[in-house]
Design goal:
The structure is a homodimer of 346-residue chains.
Chain A lengths: L2 E5 L4 E5 L37 E3 L13 E5 L14 E3 L2 E5 L3 E6 L13 H18 L7 E8 L11 E7 L4 H17 L3 H12 L3 E4 L3 E4 L10 E5 L11 H22 L4 E6 L3 H5 L16 E6 L6 H6 L2 E3 L3 H10 L7
Helix pairs in contact in A: 1-4
Amino acid sequence: MSELRWDPLKSNWVIITKGRGRRPQDFLQRRHKPEMTACPFCTGNEGKTPPEIYAHRPNDSQANQPGWQVRVIPNKFPALHIEGGLENNAEGLYDRMNGIGAHEVVIEHPDHDKAMADLTVEELSEVLKAYRTRMLDLRKDSRFRYIFAFKNFGVEASANVPHSHSQLIAVPLIPPLVATELATCREHFQRKERCLICDLLDQERQTRDRVVHDDGNFLVYAPFASSFPFELMVVPLEHSHDFTLQTDQQLLLLADTLRETLGRLRASLRDPPFSFILHSAPPMHLRWGRPDYWASLPSDYHWHIEIAPKLTNVAGFEWGTGFHMNPTPPEEAAEFLRNAEPTAIL
Amino acid sequence: MSELRWDPLKSNWVIITKGRGRRPQDFLQRRHKPEMTACPFCTGNEGKTPPEIYAHRPNDSQANQPGWQVRVIPNKFPALHIEGGLENNAEGLYDRMNGIGAHEVVIEHPDHDKAMADLTVEELSEVLKAYRTRMLDLRKDSRFRYIFAFKNFGVEASANVPHSHSQLIAVPLIPPLVATELATCREHFQRKERCLICDLLDQERQTRDRVVHDDGNFLVYAPFASSFPFELMVVPLEHSHDFTLQTDQQLLLLADTLRETLGRLRASLRDPPFSFILHSAPPMHLRWGRPDYWASLPSDYHWHIEIAPKLTNVAGFEWGTGFHMNPTPPEEAAEFLRNAEPTAIL
């Protein structure tokens, strides 16, 4: 029997089509890996990219030369442009503004053949530090209302360059789904003086049906109303609204959790294409309400990473209704992932 | 320069990435057509499907036997099930209800090799009449809050059976995107005593940049803030909130417009995969406010068909933010489609 499930964070219903239940094997498919000669992201090819904005490299190595471990560059084909004003204006019933923003690429490792799941915990934590540094820097630009890191892995998830990389985008508006999460969290806090996501973590840790990983620092779980098969939330157990406030030590612990989680997905689903996105409180949020925000953490948002393997096609139904149809109940997905050996590949 | 555009109907911003502008040629790709032996939708194979719910067939032909022109059957693998109660209940912070609904298949033509764009105007109008009849019948079930017809064409748009068909779904909730359209239309009407979609039609007919087809009965245009390349709206110029109130004559005119529009897409984009969905006022809507709804048409919704070719991949960015990124400005898409010869295939 199919089931409709309500997501209190995303304020949406999802259809879990249990009768068509799908196990990891049903999603195994041949993966395409695009061939690429002279990859611009490889070490030695630094001259083929725009000059770097940030790099983690030894102090004696030169910018835009080999020796780096993580490198951040402007996207050569940016979706949003850094120069200019918004020139927000109306056109009859419509509105338009210039696509002002930042679009950066985080090259995660010099080695072309290493996927994110292959990085060591230390290497992965340097990628997370690059996110933190760039997010803090982009916040200085008052035109940007939201800054986020995300990653597409695999051609099916639109990663056109196979060399492992993620992206940073700054946009002049709070994205709709983030706005919804901010609103549901704020409403919950105003009513109950508790963080909605902290409450969700408590419930997930009590039932444990959907928990994939719990090391006392981070919880990884399949959301009750997952829109996609094997969708996951990675959430710090300690309340924090803002990813950029994480210490180096916390980013090491996150790297450890993320590495294990990506390893479990890879082992269960044979290196599936996936996307992940970092949801953190917007810079504006920090300025709302309280002058002491750096000292006391706002309680009405809780940063997290959302991971979605790309296993099913989104078609007319989802696009035309806003409903998602998910053939794998999250309890089953969590069980498969718990039982997976993070290092094995099927 | 990229541009952000506001859609007053969907209450959402879209990013038009003009700098990456893509012409129809950029989207041409090899289409997959699944091989199928013994297609259950073909005439002669009626016994391989569940018994028909509706058919357009000569009076002297028997149900579930050849002779039909359009045939509606229950989906053999339904996403939602017709039997049972909702059993709506809470589970801590979450809610769930049974996936009650109807899921029917409209087989559009007995011939396996005819696509919707190949049907004659009369044949296509019989498909639209099947939608109308089934929608009216499903409305009698008070558990259903919304009933809609949609179509996926092509494997890339998740049509697993190649024989031309569309689907009817009844759901126990108003879908989120429909709820948004109902809300934006209602708010506009309450403020201005005009229909939002009628106002949009007026603006589109004045500027004409985004108009693809205007025969005085139906307007086909690329929405100002199209989420996808070559997205189209097909809207009756005469205000009507409810598709099921359309006369046979109006459905013939719609069939003519739809046929031409699908022909233009086919000619421009070499038989692209696409989805379309019919948005009409929900049955509930008819009961809101006014007792005389059958006589006087509510002014705060306006039925229409939305068509989206499936040319790009939706990836991490869209999924994690709710923003869509569209590389083809709708003015360019409309120009390509206006210049296409509806019957030619590239």
